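job 3f2a | input accepted
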Amino acid sequence: MKKVFVLGLDGANQKLLKEYVLKGYLPNFKKFLKTGSFAEALPCSYGATPINWATISTGSYSGTHGISTFLVHKPGTPMDKVENGFTSKICKSEFIWDAAQRAGLKTALISYPHSLPKTAKSNIVIGSTGTPGQFPVIHEAFNIELIDFKLPEKWKNVPEDRNIIKEMKFIVKPTDKTEWGLGTIQRMETGLNQMELYIGLVKNKNKKDSIILSLVKDWKEKIVEVFDKQWSDWVTLTFKNSSGKREIGYFQCYLDFTKKDLTFTSIYYEKELCDSAILRNELIEKFGYYGKYIGSVVYKNELASLQQAEAKGMWQVKAGTYLMDKHNVNICFSKWHYFDHIGHGLFNYIDPLSPWYKPSESKYWEKIFINAHQIADKMLGYLMNWADKDTSIVVISDHGEVVHINAVSINNILANNGLISFKKSKPAPKINWKKTKAFAHNSSNTQIRVNLKGRDPDGCVQPEDYEKVQEQIIDILLNVKDPKTRKRCFSVAIKKQDAASFGIWGDRVGDILYFANPGYTTEWFGLTNDLREVVCMGQHEKSSFNYGAPDYRSEHGSSLPSVSYGRGGESAIFGMWGNNIKKGYMRKNPIRLVDVTPTICYLMKFNPPRDCEGAILYNMLKQ
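job 3f2a | predicted structure (623 res):
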């Protein structure tokens, strides 16, 4: 029986990958390139995560599947209302797993976007929809500074070789990230009870010092003991709500005495690991718990994040291959998000173009990136050793990463040109929608919407003035200059009517499509009271409400999909390996991500999904 394992590496940068292969750091990727086929891949329209994973799994362009931005705006809804772009219900196209089910085949999805709600009943879904954020969780990841200790009181059953010398108390209050709001994410109460955790600092006679966590002051009742520079075992806690309903949560924590810091993962819902309780328990028994989200740890402790990344990556490939061997799965899609996390958090340290770059520290951070790629290399090696003659392996990313030197606020530009009506307020200006002619949601980093009368609830632009406003905005964008260099910030600005060449059309797309020049990002910079338009990044800049750009050190999606810049680029990676794949073939021209699904369908010998628009990559296959 033919099988395909799709190893998704979110944010994998093809320039760095090739560089590390040439330097000998990645032996399994070297073997993959020598015995398989490889190509650069162009994101669909622009490098936004949910757009491109949907393109990969449907074979259709953004205009067809309807996911036009990171968060999707539906026509007829308020200008600032958007919906999560990672759920299947937002996608208009049929998925490859729907077509596979018609052919009698089963698919497993591990942290893969658009896997829920299920569209194919036979699917096995692990780890929810793979959003780069943390929700749904019982509690998002957090840190405890180990500074507010006091002398211990009334601890029971402490062993003779241990001594609890200090203690502190921490209250875990369940709050879930559930709703995307304007410029931020609203945190909603889960209805679950809060829980007190006692933290004891332990002096050990025969071992290293440690920290224990306990619900009561009793050594025998402790829930975990954590040692310096290590992740704890997985811990489970049972939360209750007012009606007595129970929810099991699980988490790990990492101790760093040097930083006086205890880092917690998110507290995950156990039920979210898999919707089948029987299979969930089987996977936990076989492979342990699964850490779905590791992004926040990158910003808190890079060494701890590497350990988490490896654990998550190896869990994915081991569980995925197990499902294929033991549960009759024919196709497995997994998505490992670590490259995207370290790109946003740390890429500035290794790219000399970045305003945050420090030559004296670059060697240390280069090792972090090499280690991250070696984890992916280990994952790939596991798959290649597992695969038999009937199995093909696909390695793919959705986009690359580039450093940003300047942040550009589209909404501040619109406001300064009289197109947004507002009053200054805290924490951000209040918009008068009835007098606002155009607006760009913070997540829509290549699109601007015209507030059109008859289409939008508070529309004020008359239909006969629609194209005039479009042209006005295009003229404004193409005349925005960097105050230091006097170079244009934008390379492209066109009307929605002309955007089909980028794979964009339909009623969910903005009315103006634009692309910034390399080095400029339009993400994470909304309407602010100071109305700054172009801001140079660096240590001097601090984030604030609607202005998160200084917290990110690389970006993707603001520039054209083909852009190469510094040590990064917007384009993605694509490779295939197996019996039916050409050996040692490096394609000269990029593929399009719409080509992935029809090629997998061809390898597996079933008809592609209903809305597939891509082509079979014959020149990468044995004829």
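job 3f2a | Confidence is low (pLDDT under 50) at residues 178-187.
job 3f2a | closed
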